[in-house]
Amino acid sequence: MEKRTIIHLFDPMPHNSPFDMNMAADAGFEVLLPYSNVKLEEVNSLVQDAIFSRGPAGVKRTGIFIGGRDIGLAMGMLNAARKAMVPPFEVSVFADPSGAFTTAAALVACVERELRNKHGKELPGQRAVVFGGTGPVGLATGVIASLAGVDTTIVDPFNIEIALQKADEYNALCGCKLHGTYASSDADKARLIASADLVFCTAKAGVQVLNADVLADAKRLKVAGDVNAVPPLGIEGIKLKHFGEPLVHVVNAPGAVGIGALAVGDVKYRLQNRLLALMLTTEKPVYLDFRDAFQRARELV
User: Fold this and answer.
1) Which of 31, 139, 247, 289 is spaced 20 to 30 A from 217 at the CA atom?
2) Listed residue (183, 184, 224, 221) closest to 200, CA to CA
3) Is the pLDDT higher at 55 or at 43?
């Protein structure tokens, strides 16, 4: 009898994400085994416990998902899991902490599509600002955009030291070239978007980051994307289902368009489902992070 499909969900937080567990079930995994409060140093033994009990045929029907909220830690756990494999006892591993990798990949891919379709431009050479850029989704968005050739600045709402520290940390970890700054007032935000081609809004849910007055200072803005689905939305004038509609409050940058949270979310949902399903269909084990997420997000849009 064919063995059932199993996914082990490693999470350094006190609770595993119900969202990720639902997604794993919908992608076809029959048995979901959550592990909370997982430490980096425990990954090796957990992985080897999982692989040696199933045999070479069973490992093809086994996967490991890494969650949490710290994308640097998730990358470390992904690397530790990979090192723990003993071929042919080897399973696929997918890291997506807080859904940050799939959400960020979907956001950047959607913005890239509208940049190309509405303005005939590509990502390399564009200048971007990531509001909420020191959170998980913001950092992942900044890394993906930077590695795609965008001159990218991550923005902390209060503290420039945090922004600079995060930029340095992820530049070293991922080989990107992030800048860091802060914006605690509308004047700070207006100054930043005045010279931005692209705006990514990944700030806390239910907080309006860019109002009409701030948007009026945009002079070269081409595309803005917002992942906040909780009113008030992050960017005034962008509605949840917008996918390339004009930014009505941007009066000094003709042709500027916006992308709403549900448009991004639809791509994110399909992307996470596809990556989870890939773990069950691949002949060779895969190790999936933000790079794979962005590659497949581009295919989806």
Assistant:
1) 139
2) 224
3) 43
Distance CA 211, CA 232 (A): 10
Decide: residue 153, CB within 10 A, 0-12 exposed, 13-18 middle, 19+ buried. Answer: buried
- Residue 280, exposed/middle/buried by CB under 10 A (0-12, 13-18, 19+)? middle
Q: Tokens for 57?
A: 């045929």
**What DSSP designation does 287 have?**
E
> Taking each helix axis from N to C terminus, what angle separates 136-147 and 160-174, rounded to the nearest 10 degrees?
50
Q: Which residues pair with 130 in a beta bridge?
A: 154, 200
Q: Are 211 and 218 in contact (CB under 8 A)?
A: no
User: For the chain, which domains are there?
Assistant: 6-99+267-300 (3.40.50.10280), 103-264 (3.40.50.720)
- Could you write out the three-class secondary structure of 199-245? EEECCCCCCCCECHHHHCCCCCCCEEEECCCCCCCCECCCCCCCEEE
Note the pLDDT tens digit of each residue in 96-153. 999 999 999 999 999 999 999 999 999 999 999 999 999 999 999 999 999 999 999 9
DSSP E strand stretches across the chain: 6-10, 31-35, 62-66, 92-95, 127-131, 151-156, 179-182, 198-201, 223-226, 243-246, 257-259, 287-288
**Residue 16 · residue 34 · CB < 8 Å:** yes
Are the CB atoms for 8 and 65 separated by under 8 Å? yes
Q: How far apart are CA 192 and CA 279, in angstroms?
A: 41
Instruction: Provide the β-strand partners of residue 181.
Output: 155
Instruction: Give strand pairing partners of 258.
Output: 224, 245
Is this prediction's pTM over 0.70?
yes
